[in-house]
Structure formats: structure tokens, C-alpha cells
Amino acid sequence: MNTQPLYASAVRRSIARLANACVKLLPGSSTPPDGGRKRDAQRDSRPTHAAISSPWRIYRIYARPGHLLLRNEQGVVLDLGVMKGSEPNLTYRLYAKNLQGQGFATRTLLLDDIARRIEAGDIGKELLSLPECSMPLGADLDRGTHIDVSMKLAR
């Protein structure tokens, strides 16, 4: 009796099972089976990440000597305006709509006024067109005087 054909057949089946198991472990195709087209037009317009689809934007405003800076939701630091004077008589001027404020006793009160104006909608779309900050920021930006502001975008 010749057992070699039986043995070769069993080896082939074992290799085929192993190959099928390995293929099942591979990640799926990145293109949909219908040739890469999405099934539904609504999927194209709807963002997939919940934070992107949120109407709320969170900004952080910093009061640095002589400067007002804003960090947007992407982490980019923008030049928001200038701060002049010394405590207890601080003034500011924002590049967006040339808004001004004066007579603030502390940096915190000055930032509170700016945050109130942003939250009230005095400036909104203008924040999207601010220039990027060109001054060296240093590693301790978040340790200085700052305030977080949330703003709801109009849809």
C-alpha cells in the first residue's frame, strides 16, 4: 500500500486551512466593494468624527506682556491683539473688528472681558482669519494668565 499520495493530500489540506486562517486575519479592503463609490450621498456631507461635527469651538486666550494670543481647536496659536499699560490700568485692542477695552485692574479681568465679547458673538468668523503668531512662545505658555472660551458656530 502506497501512503505517499494520502500524506501529500493531507499536507495540502493543512496548508490550505492555514492560508485561509491567515487571510481572515488580514485587515479588510479600504475601498467599498461597489468600486469605491459611497452608497449614499448623505454620508459624503456628514463628518465622521463627533468633535468635527460639533457646533462648539473651544479657544484658549493668553495674556502675554504686550500681546494677546489665541489657540484654536487645531492647536495653532494666533495673534489676537495687543495689550498695553500696567496693572491696575490695562487696555487692549483686538485685531478682529478693532475692538478695544480699557481700565482693567488685572490681566484676568481683561481676559474675562474678551471672553465675554467672544461668547456674546461680537467676534466670531473674524477669529478664523487671524494671522498666525510669529513671536517665540516658550514652553510655559499654559502656565501664564489664560482663559478658555467656548463659542457656538452658526450653522
Describe the structure.
The chain has 155 residues and is an alpha+beta fold. It has a domain at 55-135 and 144-152. The protein is built from four helices and six strands. The chain has a six-stranded antiparallel sheet with strand order 5-4-3-2-1-6, covered by helices on one side. The longest helix has 22 residues, at 4-25. The N and C termini lie far apart (81 Å).
Task: Provide a count of the helices.
Answer: 4
Helix and strand sequence: HHHEEEEEHE
- Which term fits the overall shape? rod-shaped
What's the quaternary structure here?
single chain
Order of strands across the biggest sheet? 5-4-3-2-1-6
* Sheet/helix structural class: alpha+beta
- Major sheet description: 6 strands, antiparallel
The average pLDDT is 78
Portion in beta strands: 25-35%
Q: Give the total of beta strands.
A: 6
Backbone CA Rg: 29 Å
Which spans have pLDDT < 50 for at least 5 consecutive residues?
Answer: 37-47
Give the N-terminus to C-terminus distance in angstroms.
81 Å
Roughly what percent helix? 25-40%
